[in-house]
Amino acid sequence: MIAAFMLVALLALLFTGIPIFAGLTLYGGGLLLLVQGNLGSVVSIIFGELNQYLLVAIPLFAFMAHVMIRGKVVDDLYDAAYTFTRHLPGGLAVATIMACTVFAAISGSSVATALTIGAVAIPQMLRYGYSPRIAYGVVAAGGTLGILIPPSGPMILYGITTDTSIGGLFIAGIVPGLVMALVFMAWAVFRCATEGEAVKRDARASGREMLQALRKSVWSIALPVFVLGGMYLGVFTATEAAAAGVWLALFVTIVIYRTVGWREIWASAQDACRLSAMLFMILAGAAVFSHVLTKMRVPQQIVESLAAMDMGAMGFVVVMMLLIVVLGMFLESISIILVTTPVILPAMIHLGIDPIWYGVLLVINLEIALITPPVGMNLFTIKAITGSKLGPIIRGSLPYMLLMGAVLVLILLVPGIALWLPRTMMGG
Amino acid sequence: AEYTMRISHQFPPSHHTAKRLAQFAKDVAKETDGKVQVQLFGAAQLFKPKQHHAAVASGQLEAAIILSIQWGGSLPEMAVTQIPFLMSSPAKQKAFIGSEAAKLLDQKMLDKGVRNIGWIVDTNDLIFTSSTQLLDDPSKFKDVKIRGLNKLFDAGLIAMGAVPVSMSGSEVYQALQTRVVDAALTGVQAASSRKYYEVQKYGAATPIFLVFDNLVVNPAWWDGLPEDVRAGITRAADKAVQSSLITHEGVNPDDMKKLTDAGMDAVVLTSEQAQAFEAVMQPAVREAFLKSSGDDGQKLIDLIKAM
Amino acid sequence: MSQDQALPELGHDGARLRAYARFVALACRAALGLASILVLADLLLIGCAVLLRYVFSSPIVGNDEIVASTLTALVMLAAPDVLRRNGHIGVDVLVGALPPRLATWASVWSCLSVLMVAALLIVNGWKAVTLSRTIGLLTEGHLEMPVWMLQLFLPLGGLLLALVAVELLWRALARPAAAQEAKAGEP
Ligand code: NA
Ligand code: NA
Q: Which residues cross the membrane (chain A) (predicted)?
């Protein structure tokens, strides 16, 4: 009851339109003042949140995207994608979801995926006549694949917290990730085919046109191939892959395209800083808020009381999933994992719930959390790169929220979708 | 309860120290007649490991677990436990609890704003894992890219010719999988719980050094507790420490079996092999230790040798 | 980029506001420049780390530690410029539909909220700096940099944010007056 009231109060505060970072920080600080009479070390929580090596992937990938945009590499890429798909409804939307899927195999973060692909894809989709709402929804949802398709930051954290095989979790994420991508694509095609102000469709391109387009875009296609290859051949780590991507983008734009010089590099670096500042300030605020909630033991007590109920394995998982949908509206993925999993782990073991299955369900739920308002990092990411109002972004994402929910239910009912591949490959 | 003792730690629920702390919570309630309620915040959900020192020193928390290997340069004397083979035997470890050396280090921690009330043993063994060959001799470390431990211990790896790579914890599994680094080192139990056997073929284990999970409390809070409450908590903490002491010589065979059952080519070093490691690693780490800790460092080594 | 949109016009506001805005813009741009240099430095550092490790088998020591330590600075130095361009993300669903008068008060409230956070960053941040100095906190890793030096960027960021928030507040309160003046001047 008190918890519900607390969340509604936060909702009200955020709806006054103040910057989200300010809202979360002040609300967290205010609660702390109320409960313990002083602000304690709120700012050191912010410092701890920001002072993390892994976060550097965000400014670097933003940098890469802006170098590629300024270097016009992206135009060629999307011209090629358009040439290949122009006779299909929602062709570019499908291409963008594919790009998200490939990028998800590079990055373990959904924000990085939405940020990089979104900065590149949204202006191009708008250029080809897609409505903003469709473009936003495709990227906001497609970006969430970043944490389901391996590598995945949240899966590593969940694996460490629950003693579950990280390799197993990674493999288990592949099939659901691809299913999800296909569902997104199917929806995008359906949506574009049925929408009144239909996106213009041209005649199918000739083989010659396709070849030409392919030749022009070869460098932009080579980039993810190099980065993926370098990662899986062990040249660099997942985080270093971001820097490798920037270096490659710089090479292509400076040496091959000759479209980028110092001025463009400097401007791209500034863009990267601004984007990171917008997103990281929110992460910092979210860290303060969830620190205070954790300290007050709010989520722990809710989870504990639910875990103590006797409702069988399936009932338990369903209730947890519903709870996480609610928590996911307000908390950030990392916090959700840290406050819920240690508490429910004993019950999970007791009920014989497969930790890999639960992990995949959890990660899909965290994907939903990324696009549910008021605190949805992917919504904010789209807003940061487009400057659009939040309304169209939320409305564009809404159908995907439901689709993710449907996939979640599907895997809830057919665990084999997640478990078949790891069992086959790891003999577990 | 009249008092709340919030303890933050970094361990997942299955870690033995996490379980020991759950027991500690019950013991404290019993020993203090319910006057103190212990609240546990595990898995680094409240603070990150490196924030524990400041959080306890400033009174944001009543207590936390700080690993003896986490102090680094801010309390270099604590690193004495990391000198290879200096105090890793069960006998030395038992003698250390309550010793002059322990008291000296307790005082050092107090000078840094936290009071230590429990030397809970985390582990005394280490396993060198690798994807290419069994690292059972110092000569095999030449040019091996290995994920290091910390500045001090890495001096011992460098002495063997290895190339220690520093890398954030959450990147290690994948880095081992794709072979960005060839080798790693971790506790034998951690090699199981972190699933190193999935990505590393070989493992060479030996009881090489001690890691303590120190239970530290905010001094002002502690001093403000009534005498009997303090005594009750101390009894519970002592029980946790006693239960954590490692009694078997060498490496626990059960821990090794978990790794070999999972398909890892894992062995325990023979005493000759271990001596070869000691001969190369101990002087290098000791030298680095003395360089950063000075006179008190030498005093600690002398005290421990005399135990 | 959306943030590159022109800043709101100053209208009839005084020369003092104009001068103050110029000063704030200068400070923000300098800070953003520093942040951009940090991004480039991170890029260079990680690139060298990969090259050295992979090609020459000898890693840079403490590379991850330096990169991590640049991020707080980067955010604190870039956030003020974002604020100046009204780029920080808020839930605009309700506020977007407000009549102009109420919208002004909403932006005043928004500025005040940022001012409060800025104050928090300055006061509480300074406390964190002092504490880290007293207990001698060092960064985790090989370089062992003093944490308080890195934490200094928090009060610094707070100071810059406060400067910007004051400008925005000034503008928000000056604009209705300017609008009324303009209205009175109409024939
Ligand atoms: Na991924
Ligand atoms: Na959300």
A: 53-71, 91-122, 134-160, 166-190, 218-235, 241-260, 272-293, 313-344, 356-380, 400-421
In the DSSP assignment, the letter for residue A19 is: B
Q: H/E/C letters for each residue in B224-248?
A: HCCHHHHHHHHHHHHHHHHHHCCCC
Nearest to B168 among A53, A165, A295 (CB): A53
Q: Both tokens of residue A30? A: 């205010």
Give Cβ neighbours of residue B119 (< 8 Å, ≥ 6 apart): B96, B97, B102, B212, B214, B241
**From CA B151, how far away is CA B156, in angstroms rounded?**
10
Structure tokens at B164: 């220690």
Q: Could you give the 3-state DSSP secondary structure of residue B167?
A: coil
Cα C49 from Cα A111, distance rounded (Å): 25
C100-134 and A42-50 helices, crossing angle to 10°? 90
Instruction: Write out the H or E segment, with its range, that includes residue A86.
Output: none
In a domain, C38, yes or no: yes
Instruction: Please state whether beta strands B63-67 and B115-123 pair in parallel, antiparallel, or not at all (unpaired).
Output: unpaired
Question: Can you give the residue range of the structural domain that contains C80?
Answer: 15-177
Shortest Cα distance, chain A CAs vs residue B68, angstroms: 20
- For the residues of A238-267, what is the DSSP string, one character each? HHHHHHHHHHHHHHIIIIIS----HHHHHH
Token digits of residue A206? 């000739």
SS3 B177: helix
Q: What pTM does this model have?
A: 0.94
> DSSP of A152-212, one letter per residue?
-HHHHHHHHHHT--HHHHHHHHHHHHHHHHHHHHHHHHHHHHH-SSPPP--PPPPHHHHHH
3-state helix, strand, coil in chain A (%, to 5): 80, 0, 20
Block residue for tokens 């519900």: A4
Minimum-distance CB partner of B166 among C137, C142, C144: C142
A19:C114 CB<8 A? yes
Q: What is the pLDDT of residues B235-270, one digit of tens each?
A: 999 999 999 999 999 999 999 999 999 999 999 999
Based on the number of CB atoms within 10 Å of its own CB, is A241 exposed (0-12), middle (13-18) or buried (19 or more)?
A: buried
In this complex, do B174 and A151 lie within 8 Å of one another by their Cβ atoms? yes
**Contact at CB, B170 and A157, closer than 8 angstroms:** yes
Mean pLDDT to the nearest integer, C46-56: 91
Q: Is B213 helix (H, G, I), strand (E, B) or coil?
A: strand
φ/ψ of A109, rounded to 5, equals -125, 140
Does the model's ipTM exceed the 0.90 cut? yes
Q: Is C2 exposed, middle or buried (0-12, 13-18, 19+ CB in 10 A)?
A: middle
Question: What percentage of chain A exceeds 90 in pLDDT?
Answer: 69
Residues 113-172 of B with CB under 8 A from C: 113, 143, 145, 150-151, 154, 163-168
**In the block, residue with structure tokens 């490798």:** A244
Q: Which residues pair with B184 in a beta bridge?
A: B129, B147
Buried b (16+ CB within 10 A) or exposed e, C97-107: eeeeeeebebb
The answer as to whether C184 is a domain residue is: no
Q: Phi and psi for B3 in degrees, rounded to 5?
A: -125, 145
Give the number of A-B residue pairs with CB atoms closer than 8 Å.
Answer: 90
Query: In degrees to the nearest 10, what's the CA dihedral of B145, A173, A333, C39?
Result: 40
Residue A20 Cα, ligand 2 centroid: separation in angstroms?
Answer: 13
Helices H / strands E in chain B, number of each = 11, 11
Packed helices A2-15 and A20-36: angle between N→C axes, nearest 10 degrees: 140
- Determine contact, residues B289/B76, Cβ cutoff 8 Å: yes
Q: A316: CA distance to ligand 2 center in Å?
A: 22
Confirm if B109 and B214 have CB atoms less than 8 A apart: yes
Interface-testing mutation among B6, B40, B45, with chain A (most A C-beta atoms within 10 A): B45
Split into its structural domains, chain C has a count of 1
What distance in Å separates the CA atoms of residue C20 and residue C15, rounded to the nearest whole number? Answer: 8
